[in-house]
What does this fold into?
Amino acid sequence: MPIEFTHVPGKLANGSFFYDFAETATKLSLIEDAGFRRLVVDDPAGLLTNMDIAAQTLDRTGSLEVVLTHWAGVIEPTVAARQLAALDRKSGGRLSLRMLSEPLEDSDAEARPIGHSVVWQRIDEYLVLLKRLWSNDRPFDHEGAFYSVKGGFVPRKGPHGADLAIRLGGQSGTALKVAGKHADVFELAAGSADEVARLMQRVRGAAAEHGRAGRLRFALPIRLHPDGWTGSPDHKAVELAGPPARIALALLPYAALGIEEFMIGGVDRPGDIARIGRETITLVANSLARREAEVPQPGMLASHPVAEIHAG
It folds into this structure.
């Protein structure tokens, strides 16, 4: 089973990873060459900045996929559908959409109470509309709990159409219901291998209700500490410290669960990016290739020493 690596840029001393795009372009080339399959775009400036950064990233890379972080409610679904379809066309199919849950805006609070379930209901309706706009061949009207659309139509669809990859996460029953309906990639929460396995089983169960259990891929956020532990844990990702080779061994038990993607944060310096690509990514790929060629042995994964590990 091939494992893919996604680079998750961190916040640097001078601001955003994308603060100076001339410098960023050099790092993007290094990230691409190091073996990372995709890059997460999640800038503190918000959605519209993310779209601009995604477009620049796609222009300056040849194979790197862009994971665009997005929120329902920032712009209307008809506008978002057109802009995302244009980015998908521009990318030649190298775009995926990462939906995060955010509280409703104050203006919405006047019409309905703010709550966890309401946030996810809006995400559900938003994604239903995006997919419909990416696939319909004639204009349509929609009147829902959160959105009203008249003559909704996107004339120039992207190469993915309604199959643009959607990424979701969460742990509540409400979040998993929406993920089961829409997610192509589920971003897991931090935890031990056993905890992660239990969450994966819950997600598969939610997806099975929509006949989609076989379509799901799982991604696990990993935060690396190339210089050792500093500060408190992130609590949003499994955290690893140690030499790249030991980090690779620590990832193998998670790969054995069926996780197909590791979202790597904490490696933003050029030297660290190159080293993780040269050592960790290569070692994980080679180790899994060898194991697939061998007859599985009980307890095989447990026999390996692992890096210092913390599950937030």
Q: What stands out?
A: Confidence is low (pLDDT under 50) at residues 104-113, 302-306. The radius of gyration is 20 Å.
